[in-house]
Amino acid sequence: MATSSSSPEKENTERSLFAxxxxxxxxxxxxxxxxxxxxxxxxxxxxxxxGIGAILxxxxxxxxxxxxxxxxxxxxxxxxxxxxxxxxxxTVSGLLLLVILILVGxxxxxxxxxSPPLPTETFDSVVKDAHAVKGDDDYGF
Length: 141
Known about the structure:
Elements: H1 2-79, H2 83-114, H3 120-134
Helix pairs in contact: 1-2, 1-3
């Protein structure tokens, strides 16, 4: 009789283990899907920052061409010794230079946000998940 009373407990333990083993592939697939979604979100965020930075650099380069033409105009007016026109042209050039510097600074911030363009957060999360599966880390269990 002692064997029959210990047998149902053993069957419940084995059944629970088999149920867990049966659920393991589904859990791993859910984990892989979640990591892939995180990868997509992170890459989209970083590529957006890089795109904004590139647009700001293009705008700065366009303004740099305006600056060049304005400085040429200032030189022409300076050679003609007409003070008000070239002084005005130098003032406009100074303002354009200020705008260019602000845009380049904003572009640098955007590039810094998006670099490195690798999914480092996702890689770190995958490493943590791998450690958790191996049982290396203590997650408060």
